[in-house]
Amino acid sequence: MQRILIICLLICCAQLNAQKTDKKLQQKISRLIQGFNGDIGVYVHDLKKNKIAVINADSIFPTASMVKVPILVGIMDKIGKKELDYHQTLTYKDSLLYEGVDILGSFKNNEKIELSKVIMLMLNTSDNTASLWLQSLAGTGTRINQIMDSLGFKDTRVNSRTPGREANRTQYGWGQTTPREMAALFERIAGKQLLNDSASEKMLKLLGRNYWDEEGLSAIPAGIFVASKNGAVNASRSEVIYVNGGGARYVFCICTKNNKDQSWGVTNEAWVLTRKLSGLLWDRYK
Known about the structure:
By secondary structure, the protein is of the alpha+beta class. It is about 40% helix and about 20% strand.
């Protein structure tokens, strides 16, 4: 594990040293987000030219459902160690229910479901009952946080149901991250640099299927490969997207918190801004 961490840190250092700021893009993004009624952070990385644009990219934000990416990493680590099997059969229990409108929560006690389908529900429909079940199967939030730390992610953490992180949960909710780190997670998955080649490839495929496609994803044409995860609670809306196709290859993450507009319609200020940012990036890179 120590050797893997050293390799990861060396890769990150080499990439950081070569990166240059796209000043024109950064100015455009600054103008785009000017006047936003809340706190906002943005990280953009053009993977073809290795240029970045950053605004509050190292500030910590709530993950909301983006926490399901670290949970996925925890599950894939267990699968890689043969402690879980991707196609093993699980037994649902009523005690797993997280009240809401999730699909898994409609299951009957003792109903069977394959682990792969629970993962699908967590990522594709952002099913919270599935996600909390997988968090426990991954070996608790503490173990997931240890994996994040070993991979060089110092700010990306699971807070909910994780001993010692009660204060963080009060401040940030289920999980926390920075725009830079969440984007870097996707970048390393896409580059087959997370856990191992096969695990990275599987995670990229899984993250390429998102039911919630009406915000940042809506600005990217069908036929272009995208991997994504979004998260939303009342005062925080965030999204991370990796794009590859049509001449473009880039990753970006937008995080918000303390949002004045806490509505849930398409006109929500943070969601409108996310669509505009995604459109700006696609038009620039395609």
